[in-house]
Amino acid sequence: MSAPKLSIEGIARVFPGVGRRGQPTRAIEPTSLQVAENDFITILGPSGCGKSTLLRLVAGLDTPTSGRVVLNGRVVVRPGPDRGMVFQSYTLFPWLTVAENIAFGLRERGVPSLERRRIVDDYIERMGLAGFERHWPKQLSGGMQQRTAIARALANSPEILLLDEPFGALDNQTRALMQELLLGIWERDRKTVLFVTHDIEEAIFLASRVIVMTARPGRIKAEIRVELPHPRRYTMKTAPEFSTLKARLTEEIRAEALIALAER
Amino acid sequence: MRPLVPVSHRTRIGLGIAFFVLFFAVWALATLGGFVSKVFLADPITMVLNGWTLLVRFGFSYDIAMTVWRVVGGFVFAALVAVPLGIAMGAYKPVEAFFEPFVSFARYLPASAFIPLLILWAGTGETQKLLVIFLGSVFQIVLMVATSVGATRRDLVEAAYTLGSDERSVVARVLIPANAPEIAEILRLVLGWAWTYVIVAELIGSSEGIGHMIIDSQALNATGQMIFGIIVIGFIGLVSDFVFKAVNARLFPWKFA
């Protein structure tokens, strides 16, 4: 295997205790992970297992207590446009229209306006946002807001796309459509993707590899290859291979959820 | 009535006007009905007639213009200083740590208490009036703007960083636009307070302005004129509030649309 695109090397994060008596929280135990170019990795774990923290460390929004993150041979020290991020909360800039939101990173880089226009139009088209270019975020449904957020991150043509439960707040039907949309983009562009979720089906459907994390403190418990062929369609979710994987992951994650529950 | 259930636009306007009508009716009843002596409170009709006389015979519109200019002048001056400082304090914690304790202290110093000192320093001219308004508004605006900017949604700031913003651009492209409507609201609120300071400033050592007219009327026991002066202030406040709201809705359609 050639040098990995992204290399997470013994990364750990301990949050200091709150107050004088507060115990420090170990969010992530030393964890390592190699991500190859074009990999679609989903990180699956019960809530509070530190999977979002892991993603924030890769994004550079948080600093590891020990270990390091290396992207394309460079150590990550701060957030940057090479790691596009989509958050679970709706983080479109409410004062910018859909088109202006998508153009945010391009303007930051000083891309000339004609070129900017072309890229924005392209993503508007691909994300099915045509006709909504001049809408304010608050006029959009949750699904549309997240589509815009994905477009905004992709418009920067990042080295890797980081998604933190982006469809977590959407209803089931919208969520399924969004998964297909995202997968379609990946199948076409072959981006490297790191996708955090607590939804088992979502984790299998999207991934080429599913990483299962333990309950807090978070660590990698299992790593499962998903060999399902591409292009994948929603009908695949009822295929026998899919069900086998789902049963296996359900067992893995259930054990962790029980531990997490007992600790609360 | 069920809690939190909205009313229609027409009902809202109707109810709003109804209270004004009720207010004037009670006032008219108390004064014209002879329950309150004319020495203490003029009736509405006398008030309107006195006001008319003031406007056409004594050039009261000049006084109104003077007062408006003082408020606006002092207030704009205060906003020009306070808004940038407030943004800097909200955005940069060391700047906040440096200024915040002093501003919090200064905020409690009543502007009116400075009037004697300001007269000593700046005389009884326009500079003194403007300074009263300035002192009364500037610290309030600074603190409120700083609080607003400091409370900007962190996830928006983080999103900007992942899109390639640097520190300066986070201030210019996230913190300022995100808080612009809130800052406009703060200015609207503080402008209302500025009106109380200007009247106090005009009550002492002034030869024109609404406050000066009110103090002059006291010497003549002309309660009708005093009330007219007060109502004019209220009316100007109402109009400026309305204009502010309309401008905000225009400037920030993403917030108010």
Describe this structure in words.
- The complex is a heterodimer of chains A (264) and B (257).
- Helices cover 37% and strands 23% of the residues of chain A.
- Chain A is built from eight helices and ten strands.
- The model of chain A has no long low-confidence stretch (mean pLDDT 90).
- Chain B has eleven helices and no strands.
- The relative contact order of chain B is 0.12.
- The A-B interface holds A 59-61, 78-81, 83-85, 87, 89, 91, 93-96, 104-105, 108-109, 136-139, 152-153, 156, 162 and B 153, 155-156, 158-165, 169, 173-174, 177-178, 180, 252-255, 257.
How helical, in percent, are the residues of chain A?
Answer: 25-40%
Give the helices and strands of chain A as they follow along the chain.
EEEHEEEHHHHEHEHEEH
CATH superfamily of the domain at 35-61 and 162-264 in chain A: P-loop containing nucleotide triphosphate hydrolases
H/E series of chain B: HHHHHHHHHHH
CATH topology of the domain at 35-61 and 162-264 in chain A: Rossmann fold
Q: What structural keywords apply?
A:
heterodimer, A: alpha/beta, Rossmann fold, four-stranded antiparallel β-sheet, 37% helix, B: 257 residues, mainly alpha, MetI-like fold, 2 domains, 11 helices
Describe the structure in brief.
By secondary structure, chain A is of the alpha/beta class.
What topology does this entry show?
The complex is a heterodimer of chains A (264) and B (257).
Chain A: E1 6-15, E2 25-35, E3 40-44, H1 51-59, E4 66-71, E5 74-75, E6 83-86, H2 98-102, H3 104-109, H4 113-126, H5 142-155, E7 160-164, H6 172-189, E8 192-197, H7 200-206, E9 209-213, E10 220-225, H8 240-263
Parallel strand pairs in A: 3-8, 3-9, 6-7, 7-8
Antiparallel strand pairs in A: 1-2, 1-4, 4-5, 9-10
Helix pairs in contact in A: 4-5, 7-8
Chain B: H1 9-32, H2 44-57, H3 60-91, H4 93-107, H5 115-122, H6 126-150, H7 154-162, H8 167-203, H9 210-220, H10 223-251, H11 253-256
Helix pairs in contact in B: 2-10, 3-4, 3-6, 3-8, 3-9, 4-6, 5-6, 6-8, 7-8, 8-9, 8-10, 9-10
